[in-house]
């Protein structure tokens, strides 16, 4: 299944290359809300909240009111997770807060799952150079994505695996790396990072992996008409 991605920064929808370089910005979200209205799942990331540079809370709440969103960005506490759910998110995406001192923070992961329910926790495991990357992909940990997935499995209903090496480059993704994560868990898996073609999406779907796509959708390289329902 294709899951379109909406990234927010400074009150605008944006797409960044490798999480840093601005490639696309849209000041009017209505166009994309309309385009994504037929999808059963949409991924919404507040980049400002993720970077600790304010937030787009009002915009997140408005989009969640109109689209079925799973929301990430700055989920560093139980209170923040609850606030995002209260704003209309179907689930929260926790990432860097799930790791501490180079390993999975089991205490936080367990407390989050107990507070909001395992079924509403999506654990983001981002990989750069074969190892988990946190803090905006700038801090690389000594553990692999497979190690992290195995440790986090009891505390989430789904994993979001991002292959950072390919993120935003429009050059395809690493199917083998994604499938290694798929084999490591019985939980639902969604993949992101360079997914560009329907062939990749179909190959992942055949292995029960959903695909989050951003840049290829916003540039028009991946037309959405095939997915119209």
Brief account:
With 229 residues, the protein is of the alpha/beta class. The chain has helices spanning 30-35, 47-51, 57-66, 78-86, 106-116, 145-152, 175-184, 198-206, 215-218, and strands at residues 2-9, 12-17, 21-26, 42-46, 69-72, 91-94, 99-100, 103-104, 121-128, 131-134, 139-140, 158-163, 188-192, 209-213. The protein has a single domain, classed as Aldolase class I (TIM Barrel, Alpha-Beta Barrel).
Give a description of the structure.
With 229 residues, the chain is of the alpha/beta class. The protein has a single domain, classed as Aldolase class I (TIM Barrel, Alpha-Beta Barrel), CATH 3.20.20. The protein is built from nine helices and 14 strands. The strands form two sheets. An eight-stranded parallel β-barrel has the order 1-4-5-6-9-12-13-14, surrounded by six helices. The protein has a two-stranded antiparallel sheet with strand order 7-8. The mean pLDDT is 91.
Would you count the extended β strands for me? 14
The whole-number mean of residue pLDDT values reads 91
Q: What is the count of DSSP helices, taking H or I runs of 4+ residues? A: 9
CATH superfamily: Aldolase class I
Shape: globular
Helix content: 25-40%
The CATH architecture can be named as Alpha-Beta Barrel
How many domain modules? 1
Under CATH at level 1, the class stands as Alpha Beta
What percent of residues are in strands? 25-35%
Biggest sheet character? 8 strands, parallel, barrel
Question: What sequence of helices (H) and strands (E) makes up the elements?
Answer: EEEHEHHEHEEEHEEEHEHEHEH
Query: Low-confidence spans: pLDDT under 50, at least 5 residues?
Result: none
CATH topology: TIM Barrel
Intertermini distance: 12 Å
